[in-house]
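Write out the 3D structure for:
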Amino acid sequence: MEARACDVRVDDPAVVFPLDKMDRPALCLMAPVVNDYTTHRIMPAYSTPIPKATYDFMLDHMALSSALARKLGLADYRITRLGPTAFHGNDNEGSEGVITLLYQDATRRLYHMKGNHHGKVIPIITGEAIILMDYHVKAGADGREQVETRITSYSRIDNAFIAALVKIFQPFLRGVVNDKLAQGFLVVHRLGELMGADPEQVYRQAEAVPDADKADMDALRALVLPAFKRSP
């Protein structure tokens, strides 16, 4: 019975999780959310006009990405690293939680989120989420490399009454919940759009980010500036 509790059941044929490549603890975090979700959404694909190596770097360094996005006025989302695969996220709009990377390969990243939202009407809502990022390289209209991403999200709200309300008022509340879950990852997309338009400005602002790690900055410079100076 305990083993079956960690079996992930997917009822949407459009969603493919790398279940056979994940360890048991990760599956046990996934199963309660995916098997008994409150909301589920596959977001429309979006393209980010930066090379995949730069995109991967920004995802690997989410704390730097969020600090840079704040510096550039792109978002108010704040992410701090808690460990090798865990981060704390706060959108400064009442939502915060712990984000844990469960799995990654060349084209997929799978995250577990556990957090809460403090609202005006309902004092606090707690819950969990699973976020799957599928992304691949494509050529942009200018011939340059860019990354196309599709985000799939599942959320489970702890309070049964609130969860029932969200289900009743779908798809409006489904969109609200799942768009909020994707905010931290969309920071990288917004940053990538600006990086594609003006990489020098982005790097100059990055140099002014307080407490930025020098090794990270050197790596960012090596990725960003040469990549956008090459001819298509």
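Helices lie at 24-35, 52-60, 62-71, 160-168, 172-197, 199-207, 214-229.
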